[in-house]
Specification:
single chain; alpha/beta; Rossmann fold; four-stranded parallel sheet; 2 helices; 4 strands; globular
Length: about 90
């Protein structure tokens, strides 16, 4: 499954976003191929935001399949499960 990865601008991060993403990436293993939002063929986007404002979500087109994280509280396996679930619902 191809997943687009997008970070917020990082103006006020409350946790280490890149470190948390690496934990998610390890949990996903070979089951996810990561790409950029501008790449073709992705099924769902992981939006990694540094705080609860989740500013970039408002800039994305309506209807895009997105899973947002705004803290490092959820176990990485749970984030992967949410990505898989959202991708299975997506007709993108």
């Amino acid at each position: 499954m191809r997943v687009a990865l997008k970070y917020c601008g990082g103006c006020d991060p409350a946790y280490e976003r890149a470190e948390y993403f690496q934990r998610i990436r390890r949990a996903a293993g070979e089951g996810i191929t990561w790409c950029r939002p501008e790449d073709a063929g992705w099924r769902v986007m992981l939006l990694v935001c540094g705080c609860a404002k989740v500013c970039p979500r408002q800039e994305l087109p309506a209807g895009w399949p997105v899973v947002c994280v705004s803290d490092a509280e959820a176990p990485p396996e749970e984030v992967v499960r949410r990505l898989q679930e959202k991708a299975s619902q997506s007709c993108r």
